[in-house]
Automatic annotation (TrEMBL), chain A:
Belongs to the class I-like SAM-binding methyltransferase superfamily. TrmB family. It catalyses: guanosine(46) in tRNA + S-adenosyl-L-methionine = N(7)-methylguanosine(46) in tRNA + S-adenosyl-L-homocysteine. It is found in: Nucleus. The lineage of its organism: Eukaryota, Metazoa, Ecdysozoa, Arthropoda, Hexapoda. PROSITE patterns: SAM_MT_TRMB. It comes from the Eukaryota. Catalyzes the formation of N(7)-methylguanine at position 46 (m7G46) in tRNA. Gene3D superfamilies: Vaccinia Virus protein VP39 (3.40.50.150). The active site is at residue 167. This is tRNA (guanine-N(7)-)-methyltransferase. Keywords: Methyltransferase, Nucleus, RNA-binding, S-adenosyl-L-methionine, Transferase, tRNA processing, tRNA-binding. It comes from Zophobas morio. SUPFAM superfamilies: S-adenosyl-L-methionine-dependent methyltransferases (SSF53335). Its EC number is 2.1.1.33.
UniProtKB/TrEMBL annotation, chain B:
Pathway: tRNA modification; N(7)-methylguanine-tRNA biosynthesis. It is found in: Nucleus. This is tRNA (guanine-N(7)-)-methyltransferase non-catalytic subunit wuho. The keyword Cell wall biogenesis/degradation does not apply. WD repeats lie at residues 186-208. InterPro entries: Trm82, WD40/YVTN_repeat-like_dom_sf, WD40_repeat_dom_sf, WD40_rpt. Its main location: nucleus.
Length: 273, 366
């Protein structure tokens, strides 16, 4: 099974998040049939694994969510070889699938073609790595994260949630389409476990200011200092593996990383009432 | 037409008028108090617009009644119907509520909920849905605010710290049009034709009633799905148009009206075990305008007001004063054409088309 070719899956960068798309989603998280996405970890809804070892697997839950995952670069990449990275000190790995082999990661993407590509890519990666069983821990759904996250995730289920290079929606009238907004942050806080992390990266200064403002103002999020970012393997992963960051790196030259990206990391903190 | 109750007296609304049968009075909603710095153009727009009442609510202490109108106006009256305040909000309100302390919650059609404090400060934005909010309720303890939307969602947020979401009550397959908190549970009604009872703090469903099972005439659904089919909307049930709940001892009594059905269905739900039974439904003589459930069940049709006893669905000798009033002002009482069909989603599916096109392209070997 060969990897899908991106040129057959191009789509414009925007999709109206408020429109009534015809999407499939479960009526509530417990009705979600995860076996279609992670066949190694879940049996069909209502069925059970027979042996002890496997029944432990069914207790697994998706813990990482990549919202607006695009072509799925963060989840898992094509290349197994070491990629040339501008900063030499990074121990580079490709994608969440490799870096967190024990964690189930799910990408969510609204654009139909792009979601289709990412899905085919994951299937091909699994097929190619059959012997090692790699890439079984990543999957993607076509979903509108702004409206339908509660149908996929339970309260406190997620350990990490990613918003990488989201649509900046420059016009003021389109600000309500932005994926980071005061309203939606309350939703994200609901899905995150206490101590869970929200990652956001953008190469648009204006959006960065907006995100920092709303995340800082939200009572349930606390900013993590730039100092602490250095030790986080996920940050390096984000900067190097996601498709968008590769594009930005290609276009913007290699040594400008610090100037191009605005990374921010927020910790979800529980406020006691 | 809407119905509310203030100190056991019914208040009806029709268009831009409040009708008070007890005092034989009609009150027209006055134009809004316009801030002085408005431009002439804005003024014209405000004055022209229709002041049809969209929501009516009473305070728990029985001292105030408030209405919201189509032209974004909110008018608060005291118990003697003197105007206490009359102001304009930014977006068309769909539902208003008083809190215990007399502040006002305003949900609007763009999906936001604002808190208007009694001291006239700027309103506080409490929460937002990405969809039209169709109803809103406060828990009895006022620690939770519950909102439901044109999607299938019910959101339970802490109050007043609404950034902290307690749960989502998920299970409805269509828009949720009513939420009522009573006796520590949440009762919801939806376009999918079901009434559901929830433990709203946990977001767990306790029971579900399919009201369509009690519809004897199968043609009604056929007809409705035929109409909706032309708009490319798939419907599998007659939608609930209104639901009201009262407590009767250790049971809840739920009254429901369905689209194009003439009768008002009644259900009894036990608060222990959540078993439910169907009570006799009540059918008006003429087309149903509205029903109102409190100690008794009031049915408003195009001719008269009928009052029914809840425990045995028997007709009570009707209220003479009410009848006369209703007869006299029948011409004022317009049925508001609150078209429920617009709440259904006209889904557009571009995926099927895309897959077919791609298949063709791959086959042609490009």
């Amino acid at each position: 099974m060969s990897l899908p070719q991106k040129r057959f899956f191009r789509q414009r960068a925007h999709s109206n998040p408020l429109a009534d798309h015809s999407l499939e989603f479960p009526s509530c998280p417990s009705k979600m049939d995860w076996s279609e996405h992670f066949p190694l970890f879940f049996t069909k809804l209502g069925e059970r694994f027979n042996d002890e070892e496997n029944s432990m697997k069914t207790k697994k839950k998706v813990e990482f969510a990549d919202v607006g995952c695009g072509y799925g670069g963060l989840l898992g990449s094509f290349c197994e070889v070491q990629v040339t990275v501008p900063r030499a000190d990074i121990n580079f790995k490709v994608g969440l699938a490799d870096t967190f082999p024990e964690v189930l990661s799910l990408g969510l993407e609204l654009r139909a073609k792009v979601a289709d590509y990412a899905h085919k890519k994951i299937l091909a990666l699994r097929e190619q790595n059959k012997s090692t069983g790699k890439y079984q821990n990543i999957s993607i759904v076509r979903a509108n994260a702004m409206k339908y996250l509660p149908y996929f995730f339970e309260k406190g289920q997620l350990k990490k949630i990613f918003f990488l290079f989201p649509d900046p929606h420059f016009k003021k009238s389109k600000h309500k389409w932005r994926i980071i907004s005061p309203h939606l942050l309350s939703d994200y806080a609901y899905f995150l476990a206490v101590g869970g992390l929200l990652y956001t990266v953008t190469d648009v200064a204006e959006l960065y200011e907006w995100e920092i403002k709303h995340l800082s103002e939200h009572p349930l999020f606390m900013r993590i200092s730039n100092e602490s970012l250095k030790g986080d393997a996920t940050v390096d992963l984000i900067l190097n593996s996601s498709e968008e960051s590769k594009k930005v790196t290609r276009q913007g030259g290699d040594n400008k990383m610090g100037e191009i990206y605005y990374v921010s990391l927020f910790l979800f903190a529980l406020v006691v009432f | 037409m809407l119905v509310a109750e203030l100190n056991s007296a019914l208040i009806l609304t029709s268009g831009d008028t409040l009708l008070l049968p007890a005092s034989n009075q009609l009150i027209k909603i006055p134009p809004p108090d316009v801030p002085p710095n408005l431009t002439k153009g804005q003024l014209q727009v405000l004055n022209k617009q229709d002041r049809t009442i969209t929501s009516v609510t009473t305070s728990r202490d029985g001292k105030h009644i408030a209405v919201s109108t189509e032209n974004k106006q909110i008018v608060v009256f005291d118990a003697a119907f003197r105007i206490v305040s009359n102001f304009i909000v930014n977006r068309a309100p769909s539902k208003i509520l008083f809190t215990k302390s007399g502040d006002m919650l305003v949900a609007d059609r763009t999906g936001d909920v604002y808190l208007y404090k009694r001291e006239k400060t700027e309103p506080v934005l409490l929460l937002g849905h990405l969809s039209m909010i169709l109803d809103m309720a406060l828990s009895e303890c006022e620690k939770y605010i519950i909102t439901c939307d044109r999607d299938e969602k019910i959101r339970v947020s802490r109050f007043p710290n609404t950034y902290n979401i307690a749960s989502f009550c998920l299970g409805h397959d269509e828009f949720v049009i009513r939420v009522v908190v009573i006796k520590g549970v949440l009762v919801s009604a939806s376009g999918d034709g079901t009434v559901r009872v929830w433990d709203y703090v946990k977001g767990a469903q306790l029971c579900s009633i399919d009201t369509n099972l009690c519809v004897k005439d199968e043609k009604l659904l056929e007809e409705f799905s035929g109409v909706m089919d032309r708009e490319k909307v798939d419907v599998t049930a007659l939608p609930i148009t209104d639901m009201q709940v009262v407590c009767d001892g250790d049971c809840l009594v739920v009254a429901v009206s369905l689209y194009s059905c003439r009768d008002v269905q009644l259900y009894r739900v036990e608060l222990e075990g959540y078993n439910w039974t169907v009570l006799n439904s009540v059918e008006p003589v003429d087309a149903l305008h509205k029903f109102y459930l409190s100690k008794n069940l009031y049915i408003f049709d195009s001719f008269k007001v009928s009052v029914y006893n809840l425990s045995n669905s028997a007709l009570i000798n009707s209220d003479k004063q009410m009848d006369e009033f209703y007869e006299k002002h029948k011409n004022v009482l317009k049925i508001s054409e609150n078209e429920i069909t617009v709440l259904y989603k006209r889904k557009f599916d571009n995926v099927q088309e895309y897959l077919e096109r791609k298949k063709l392209r791959l086959e042609s070997g490009k």
